[in-house]
Automatic annotation (TrEMBL):
PANTHER family: ACRA/E-RELATED COMPONENT OF DRUG EFFLUX TRANSPORTER, CATION EFFLUX PUMP. Residues 1-27 form the signal peptide. It comes from Massilia violaceinigra. Residues 71-203 form the Multidrug resistance protein MdtA-like barrel-sandwich hybrid domain. Belongs to the membrane fusion protein (MFP) (TC 8.A.1) family. Residues 111-176 form a coiled coil. It comes from the Bacteria. It is found in: Cell envelope. This is Efflux transporter periplasmic adaptor subunit. GO terms for molecular function: transmembrane transporter activity. Residues 389-422 have a biased composition (Basic and acidic residues). Its main location: other.
Length: 422
């Protein structure tokens, strides 16, 4: 009985100590759990940039083709057999170079005959002049009748006309003789010979073709907006710069100017024919090549323009939109009207104002009216989306573990002392 009372007396302080230790451990866990809970998230992390405004000369890009300023199909002007071809296919020829030679012998003979006919007609005319002079003296002496004198005067006029006709025939014969040498009417690059030596040709046969190489045209179809922007400027004679780039070139390295704008728009396509002229001293540009055309406005068309990055633009069916970040860090949906791309940025006709902040990265995580956590970068900078911070959560877990580690040794000491007393 005394032993039982002694044990009960010893157990009461032990139970009280264990209760206090349990309460301390529970308090430590609650404190650790309270520290481990992170703060409510402010919104998904995104990257934002400030809408900028610049004075720019707007450009538009089109697809076009290069065309020669002059192009000539070479044909024979007289009939005959080709006796020689005097050019290398694809070479550059000068104006006046002999490309083909047609057998000149028949035309040389015709020229000789016509020359002889002229000499004969001139001799008869000279004789008629002498006879008319003699008749004039005889008429003064009344040795001949007036009628005879008139006949001789009329005969001289007829012979003079025959001389002129013979001279014209001679000129035609000499002209035909000159046509036996087929010359290049323009300077440029010649094609291959379509007819070789020994073939009979006439005026219906195309012998070859020559295209000019410098300068050269780039022809393209502009839209209605382009016509309203630069059409009248070009028609007044102001310079409208145009640049082109070939398929194997980056950018638009060749510079020229707008040379022609058609007088009407095609109602079926809503486009207008335009043409620019370029220097081609190095013969890099060849007629028929595809070209990327960049059309700029004149210097007088420069104005303040709102610019944003293409990364900030979203598509909603047939509309384009951006998310504008308000003063309360909430995203606002804005429909925008876009223009051309200039120096890597997109022109905005309406929808945003300079100085407003828009989302440029992370559009898929943004909801209209929802808060966002924005990192501000430059509009033309490629930025990565910032990662969410989890430092509070990571630091809370070790604290909770430390609290539990501090409670456990106390319980073990209490158990050991109890066993010793027993």
């Amino acid at each position: 009985m005394k032993t039982t009372n002694r044990l009960m007396t010893f157990a009461r302080p032990l139970a009280a100590a264990m209760a206090l230790a349990g309460l301390a451990a529970l308090a430590g866990c609650e404190d650790a759990n309270s520290k481990a809970q992170p703060a409510a998230p402010a919104g998904p992390p995104i990257t934002a940039a400030t809408v900028i405004e610049r004075s720019v000369n707007e450009t538009q890009e089109f697809s076009g083709r290069l065309e020669a300023v002059d192009r000539v199909d070479i044909r024979a002007r007289v009939n005959g057999f080709i006796t020689s071809v005097n050019f290398k296919p694809g070479s550059v020829v000068k104006k006046g170079d002999i490309l083909f030679v047609i057998d000149p012998r028949p035309y040389q003979a015709e020229a000789n005959r016509a020359e002889a006919a002229v000499s004969s007609a001139r001799a008869r005319a000279d004789l008629a002049k002498l006879e008319l002079a003699r008749a004039e003296r005889l008429l003064g002496d009344k040795a001949i009748a007036q009628r005879e004198f008139d006949e001789k005067a009329s005969g001289l006029k007829e012979l003079d006309a025959n001389v002129r006709a013979a001279q014209a025939s001679l000129e035609a014969a000499r002209l035909n003789l000159s046509y036996t040498n087929v010359h290049a009417p323009i300077g440029g690059r010649v094609s291959k010979a379509e007819v070789t030596t020994g073939n009979l040709v006439d005026g219906t046969v195309i012998l070859t073709s020559v295209v000019s190489s410098n300068p050269i045209y780039a022809t393209f179809d502009g839209d209605e907006d382009t016509y309203l922007r630069v059409g009248r400027v070009a028609q007044k004679g102001a310079t409208v710069p145009v640049k082109i780039g070939l398929a194997n070139e980056s950018g638009f390295p060749h510079e020229g100017k707008l040379e022609f704008v058609d007088n009407r728009l095609d109602s079926a396509t809503g486009s207008v024919r335009m043409r620019a002229m370029f220097d081609n001293t190095d013969n890099t540009l060849v007629p028929g090549l595809f070209a990327r055309v960049q059309l700029s406005g004149s210097d007088s068309t420069q104005a303040k323009t709102v610019l944003i990055s293409d990364r900030a633009i979203g598509t909603d069916q047939n509309r384009k939109f951006v998310y504008v970040i308000g003063a309360d860090s909430k995203a606002e949906y804005r429909a925008v009207t876009l223009g051309p791309s200039i120096d890597g940025l997109r022109v905005v006709r309406s929808g945003v104002k300079p100085g407003e902040k828009i989302v440029v990265n992370g559009l898929q995580r943004v909801q209209p009216g929802a808060p966002v956590t924005a990192q501000i970068v430059a509009m033309d900078q490629d930025s990565k989306t910032p990662q969410a911070k989890t430092d509070d959560t990571k630091t809370a877990e070790p604290k909770a573990a430390d609290a539990k580690a501090e409670v456990k040794p106390e319980l073990k000491v209490a158990d050991a002392s109890a066993k010793t007393k027993e």
